[in-house]
Amino acid sequence: MPYHKLNSVRMKEINEKAVLNAVCRYAPISRRALADHTGLTTATIANIVNELIAKQYLVETGQGMSDGGRKPQMIETNPDAGFMIGAELNTSNFVCILSDFRPRILDEIVVGIDLSRGKDDVIQTAAGAIREIMARNGVDRERVLGLGFVSAGPYDRERDVMVNPPNFPNWRDVDIRGSIERITGVRTLFERETPSIALGEYWFGPNSGTKRMLSINVYEIGLGGGLLIDGNIYHGYRDSSMEIGHMVVQPDGDPCDCGGRGCLEVQADGAAAVRYAREAIASGQISALCGYERFRMADVALCARQGDTVARDAIARCGDYLGMAMGNLCAVFSPDIVFLGGPFVDACPELFDRAVAICDQRPYPMHLPTIKKSRFAFGASAAAMGGIALVYSDLSAI
User: In angstroms, rounded to a whole number, what is the distance separating the alpha carbons of residues 127 and 149?
Assistant: First the structure.
């Protein structure tokens, strides 16, 4: 394809996404207002809107208020354009949501995952949940516009395989996308979980349309990052950008499954809080956690909410490392907004506050406190909503 043709195709795709994003954010909206929000000409808006209406992605929904001339036709996304599925596979659960095109969440399935049973068992469990959510809602696969499947990296985009995720034992070169597509018969897209969460925020969250978004997702086991620029995920060389869980924040720290020591995730994820609490108890400190034969992240979070000093100190220590990392990332990328969330943050809201406080007390860069910090808008469904956003972002292939 000639360069100028490729350039025009890419520009059309960018403009189409800008229009759809504005409709998602401001609907019902007129064509003229779309031109104001996107900076595109009225002629370009007319062409894109007409094409999206022809594809049944958008619909006219009546007339708006007049500013002196004819009443404008208002535009919204068409909820009946088709269905979308967002799915997240993490170290403990598989989360699957079904939405219409607005998107409104119609159903959700969460099933437990046991990685020790092997990749084939996990893939079959995930595919079974996907088929179940379609069956119980009477959705034929021909009506599904796409399935956005998100999970851990690293991911080799050229070979289309999960390479060797540190917290997925014996998962080497796994064709997760192709396997799910073959079993379910649904067109499947794959992306790493944390940039997908940022993509969901870009399309559907209260801060949608923000130019530069950075996200940090903290699990019970593991931690990841994502960077979006103008709604596009920054993948980096060999699709390995933003592996922030493996930034070294403590050179003589604990060993990490990646082979290094003192990585952010081993110093600041939910398992780290458990380890810190155990170390404090072993040193003679008294805690409500002493009454547990074995305790996990959720137990530390519960005891912290009840005022237990050992639990609160363990969470604060994780927050210190997260705040250090957040400050470093803001100094490098200077985003408009940073999202911090995930299961550990959801279980311990004070973790967010501690990390932000540590980040913002840095003296430089001076604008650091003015960078917006936010929790994820969709809670436990954030990554699966990122899967829905993957489908939206791939409209040119639909």
Answer: 11
